[in-house]
């Protein structure tokens, strides 16, 4: 009897254990239906969805190839002892002047801005192939879009849409069997049942500019189901080259230029020193002296101006008459020396065609400066001049990139003409040429090439003009307020 009880008790325990296991298992299956999918299940279901879903109705994700970045202009501030340029504006007309400056700045931005500056993001894990840069067409002309394609997708039907805003699209060599809609329009749709056929059609898609502009762009929107991308088209009028016959020696490569005013002993000494080292090089002189005198010598062009027209007006006149690839700027009280190796300047410029200006040293002076500029908000920008250079120029010993230099430099004639010298600056100005050329001129200083400064002579009449009255400086600062849209500057 005790044995029977023992067996019955054992069976009962096994039965209870089985029931409890089944209950737990049931709860597990009930609960798992409410749990997130495992990575394996997600992968399996994703594959099934890709096998069955039509890409035209595919699930969307949050990728935006052209996100809207709302960057608000930030106010800037200049260091202590800066000029607050608004104090040099006529208070009676302050509001009207600020309004006119804002209107001019808006037009300036229209000239400078481009759709090609729009931020574009490349799509992640995309089967789309397209050109990311380098596709250029002339205004109102047509070109095949290179590299368009779709890769790595297996489907029964394919549909691609391309759209633009400043041109039209077309498939070149279109045949009747090709399923293309929007031929010669701003929106082009291609449908095929074969990936090979799709890529054949995409390889023949052309873009034609329909809006005339010499320098602009367009954006092509490329859509394939859930995949989308945007890429740029550069619309640019080809330019006609302006080349200079370089010649065989420095005399055909460089013109020496200067501006003189009431300093004939100095300019004659300068010419004499030039002829000591360069007998045949052309010299051009702009002269706005009160009582003009002839500067004698061979191969000298002296242009007489109305009296006291000013520093930058004379520079413009001189540079306008240069016919060589380069001009060497010198002040009228400089003097050539054994260190004045114009050929070295030319060698540096020829070895680095992107360089626009290269300067040397004057006596012991090796002055150069950097310009630190912040655009600022509606009040205007902030500009600070800082002594020094940016970095060494690779491969050219003792030469440095900088922003502005001393009045002894070799410049590319065409580059200097593009920036120009503002004739409103009559007696106060030098750095202003490099201000106007900021971002336009690539400047360097190589102080191993140099010349000397003549010893100063007593010249009371010149001295009176050399030190300008207060209103000349005030007018210059107002010019920076309006013309350069500056709020403050530190010199």
Report on this structure.
With 491 residues, this protein is an alpha+beta fold. The protein has helices spanning 2-32, 39-52, 94-112, 195-202, 264-277, 311-320, 342-351, 413-419, 431-436, 460-466, 470-482; strands at residues 83-84, 128-129, 136-137, 142-144, 149-150, 158-163, 167-171, 179-181, 187-192, 205-209, 215-224, 227-236, 254-260, 283-287, 300-304, 326-329, 334-335, 357-362, 368-377, 380-387, 391-392, 400-402, 404-405, 409-412, 443-453, 486-490. The strands form five sheets. Strands 13, 14, 15, 16, 17, 18, 21, 22, 24 and 25 form a ten-stranded mixed beta sheet that branches. Strands 3-12-11-6-9-8 form a six-stranded mixed beta sheet, with helices on one face. The protein is elongated, with a radius of gyration of 36 Å.
